[in-house]
Amino acid sequence: MNKKLTLFIALIFVLQATQFAQADDHEEKQTIVDVASSTGSHESLVAALNHVGLADTLAGNGSFTVFAPTDQAFTDAGINLDDFDTEEENNTLSNILLYHVISGAAVDAANVTDGMTAEAANGDTLSFTVTNDSVMVGDATVTSADVEASNGIIHVVDKVLMPPADVIEEPVTTTCDVTVGVVDTAYDRPSVSIDVGQTVCWEWTEADMPHNVAEIEDISSTEILTGGIYSGEAEGTVFFSYTFTENTTFYYACEPHLMMNMKGEVIVGTGIDANDVKADDSDKSSESTPGFLLATSIIAMIGAVLVLSRRS
User: Fold this and answer.
1) What pLDDT score does 286 carry?
2) For every residue of 163-228, which 3-state class applies, written as one string?
């Protein structure tokens, strides 16, 4: 009887120990969202995650590093979930929350160094400052580090991190000093004159036939100049511009209508290429050099002597 009682008591102890182990195991398997929900100071964070559907993500398989602003931090930032109703507003809130997450790694405080950067889950960059007294991510101070969860790690911060504003590039606008259009199979201004540094625009919309601008060697050319200025394939709607920076005369044609003599010219400044002028001057100077004149004189003298000798 005593033996049976002993075995029974031992069985009770084993069952109790198993229950305690299961309870401990349950606590160890708390996700980041579970841990945040239990702190009592991250209700705003959990509510925001649920509001935009990110709670399930952070409760899933990690690893994640989460910088968790306190309720007071949300209040200081003026974030009220009632203000986020539209899809655009919710996308903004989601972007803010994802800026607090590093996905794919559980980064503990010991591995954070001064000047370190990391990519946040929203694609922006987080930067860290480490001093003897504190660790900061952006302008927020880590007040409690290395709070472990089953799928990552939490660092409590005292401010809501705001993603950097997207830089919107202003569209490049072209100032047209002269605009050339088309009429049937001709340019409406086949010859224009501009100053050096000015821009010519070729523009037409829904023309009856496709046209383009292709450089030719001179106004009588019947072939497109390889590697020359080119607006692209002929189209019914075209906007093409080119800024001329030197004295020259630019000849061009419509590629499909080249043989129909759809051509034009742009006279820039003097219309004469400075390189051509130098080449001409060089040729002239070579003809007037002293050596050339001396040789010519000697030949003439020899010729005269021969004529005289023959007469004698």
Assistant:
1) 47
2) CCCCCCCCCCCCCCCEEECEECCEECCCEEEECCCCEEEEEECCCCCCECCEEECCCCCCCCCCCC
